[in-house]
């Protein structure tokens, strides 16, 4: 087999592969048998006729076409092994010559795994922050729990702070109602700061049946960037006013949430807050360590196709997240005034960063001989199967693709632990 290699740059190579007849003769015979099983040849059971009779029946070119995929798969693997290439993804194949009695010639354009040379990432230490749970942290959660158990009584009076009102409202800008800017029978507790600054204050002193209009400016840090620092017009109709009474924080309230007493409730809250803070601190440390690993490494230029594939994956993840919240991609794009092409552009840089991080992690795993064995995957699957999680019921734990996904996740976890053990002080 003859292989001519041409470097295309950006970690891409073009291979012109010529496979001589004697090297794919067996593939032709197997292809003929498959075609013979689909054809009726007098005197022979399906697939049992001689090669020459099948060739006469279906045509030699049909046999070559049937065998082409097997020939390419076999010879391509031989070619990249011969050239000592580590490829990623599927090759783009273009057949140059396919004719009976002649060598098969095709061009395979492949992406190479970009070369990674790790730097002295372990020289930079990372300082871990001491994690503490304050009484203020616990009190915030207790306040939220009390709010959830508040008693509400409909009253015929003007609304005051801490009351709940039910209202219809409409938000417009330049006399055009905003997307999602209309809500009916909308509940709001005055003083909780859940609306645009100044909104709740406007409703203090109103009562059922009141209608009012006013203008407010969205804050600079508003989550919808397209509305930040812009003035909008609000139309409100107050429907009901409720006086809310918060319960006492005592053993009875704790029992209402399934705990033996107030102390047990506070202990669980403290444990949950501690775990949450520890997880966030660990994520911060891992992000810092990963950033340093990539920063100190020398990584070849990433192929455009690989970037495109990663961007496509990221958009798919965004779509899944939106749908899990009951949102649709077209409406989300409309709300942020962007197109899917804009997302492709916006995600290009983060995609490169994700690819670089993945490559650096894989290189470190190979250098340090960090691996995941089947027993690791089995143990993780056993943990997931034991968890009462509705999402787990949708997973086919025997699917090889899911096992491969878990293998990648566990490998990353092992490598990150190896790194943090080295540099965290």
In CATH, the topology of the largest domain is named Trigger factor, domain 2
Compute the average pLDDT.
89
What is the chain-wise order of helices and strands? EEHHHEEEHEEEHEEHHEHHHHH
Proportion of residues in helical segments: 40-55%
The number of strands is: 11
Low-confidence stretches: none
**Full CATH superfamily name of the largest domain:** Trigger factor, C-terminal domain
The assigned CATH architecture of the largest domain is Orthogonal Bundle
DSSP strand content:
15-25%
Query: Count the helices. How many?
Result: 12
State the shape. elongated
Characterize the largest beta sheet: strand count, sense, and whether it forms a barrel: 5 strands, antiparallel
Give structural attributes:
425 residues, alpha+beta, Alpha-Beta Plaits, Chitinase A, domain 3, Trigger factor, domain 2, five-stranded antiparallel sheet, four-stranded antiparallel sheet, 11 strands, 47% helix, elongated
What does this protein look like?
The protein has 425 residues and is α+β, with helices and mostly antiparallel strands. It has three domains: 112 residues, Alpha-Beta Plaits, CATH 3.30.70; 96 residues, Roll (Chitinase A, domain 3), CATH 3.10.50.40; 165 residues, Trigger factor, C-terminal domain (Trigger factor, domain 2, Orthogonal Bundle). The protein contains twelve helices and eleven strands. Strands 6, 7, 8, 9 and 10 form a five-stranded antiparallel beta sheet that branches. A four-stranded antiparallel beta sheet has the order 1-2-4-3. It has a two-stranded antiparallel ribbon with strand order 5-11. A hairpin with a 2-residue loop joins strand 1 and strand 2.
